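Issue 218. Parser rejects a valid record. Input:
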Amino acid sequence: KTVIDLFAGSGILGFEALSRMARSVIFVETNKNLVQLLYKNCLQIDQQNCIIKRMDAYKFLKEKRSVDLIMVDPPYGQKALNLLIELCLNMLNPNGTLVLETSTKDEHINADDERIYGSTRLSFWRNK
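Output the parser choked on:
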């Protein structure tokens, strides 16, 4: 599977995907210090199938690309969540999955499935 870890931060979601046999992971993050940490972590675990993009998530999602799984953990209160969701869904392969972590206070279009953990909502969409 090809995976995107959007708003990657330290990359924990993407590294978990690699440990579960993802073929490759694209980490997208804008913060310079976090990008340096991502490079360091990729080198430490000797992963040649890590791709790190230091760029805006919305610009990245406008690239032509098809993937199997997109994991999105934007800062709580992120604006334009519906646009973010639509751009992600357009990038998914058939039967691909989008997982979005938000605050329960953040509003967005209906998901196929949702789970609430305290003040955190995990939303799931399946590209049919």
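Fixed in the parser; the record now loads. The mean pLDDT is 92.
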